[in-house]
Design goal:
383 residues, 2 domains
Length: 383
Amino acid sequence: MAKDSIYITGWEYNRLLGDDPTKPVQSGLPAAVLYRGSSQFWLFRKVYCTKESLESELQSAEALGWAQGKIFRDLKNDGFLHPYSWSDFKNTPGTHYPEFTETSSRLKAEFPRKRLQEFLDNGEADQLENIKLRLIGPLCDHLNCVADVTPDAIVHWKSKGKPPATPSLVSDTLGLIAAPIMKDRAEIKFDMTICQRPGSRATPQELTAQMNVVQDIELPRIPTLLLGDITMEDYLDALYPHAAVYRPISSQMLEDWENSRKRLNRLRELAEKHVWPDLHGEWLPRLEEDPAFYGEIGKLIRKATLRAKMGPLLDQSMRFAIIGAGAVVGLAANAVSGPLAGVILGALTKESLSEKHKETLKRSDKLTLFYQAVSRQKKASLL
C-alpha cells in the first residue's frame, strides 16, 4: 500500500506519564523541519502532526511573536500541515489501536517517569527519539504514513546523546532525493528550505541577547516543560518580558518564508508529478520490508542526477560502452572456442547489458525529469 504521508513528532514521549496516552498533552513541533531542507512538505501529500504540537506553536506566536508558530499556521492554512487528535485514534473502530495500547503499556513499564527525567536532564535525544518512534508506530500504520526522524527538541538545548539509534531510512531517503537540488551540495544549485537557519543573518549583539535569555530563562525550564510539569502558559509568561530579543531572528525567518512560499508550492507540484508515484508506491513500502533497498535508491538517484546534468551525452557514452563490452567478450570467446562462439557470446553480452541499461534508464526516468524540471524553472527564475 502506498505511503503518501509523513508524521512530524514533538514531545509525545510525555504521553507515557498519564493513564491514557490518547488524552491531550502539551507538545511542540521541531523548528528544524523549516531549515533542514523542508523536504517533508514537498515530498508528501500530507504532513501530519499531533494536534497539541501545533496548538503550542500557535500559542508561542500569539504570546511572543515567534516566527515558527506563524509559519506552521500558514502551512496548515495552505494545506500542507494536518493536525491529528489522538483521541480520534481511540474512537475509530477496526484500527491499530489495540496494538497501540499494548505498545504504550510496554513503554510505560520500560520507561517510567524517572528514566524520562534522566534522559531530559542529560540531553539524551537518541533515547527520547526511539521511545517516540516505538509509541507512534501503530498510529502511523493507522494513518498509512511514515514517521519523520527530526532531532528531538532537547537536542537544541543540551544534547549529549548520539543520533537516533533506530534506523531512519525514511529520513535518509528524503535527504538523498533532496541533496542534488540543495544549496552548497547541489548539482543544480537550488535552495529549497522554508527558511535559513535561525540567526544566520543576525548581528553578534542580537545573537548574544537571545542566547542570554535561552541560558537564563529557557534552559532551566525545558525538562519540566517537556515532561508537562509546567504548562506552556507558564513557560511563555516567563519569557514575555524578554520578547523583544526574539524579534530580529523571527523577522528573518518570516522574510525567508515569504520568499519561499510560492517556490514550495511549485516544487511540490513537480515532485507530485515526477517523484511521488515511485517514492510513495514503491520505495517507502519496500524499505519497510527490505532495508537493503536503500542502496538501490541511492544508485537510482545518482544515475538520475548525472542524466539530468549531462543529458543525452551520458546515455550515448553508455551505449558505446555496452557495444565495446560485447566486442571484448566476443574476441575472448573467439580466441578460446572459435569464431561462431565469439559472435554468439559477444551478441548475448551486448543484448544483456543493453537490457539492464534500458531498465536502469526506465527506473530513473521520472527522477531525471524532476531534476531537469527543477533546473529549468530555476533558470527561468520560477523557483
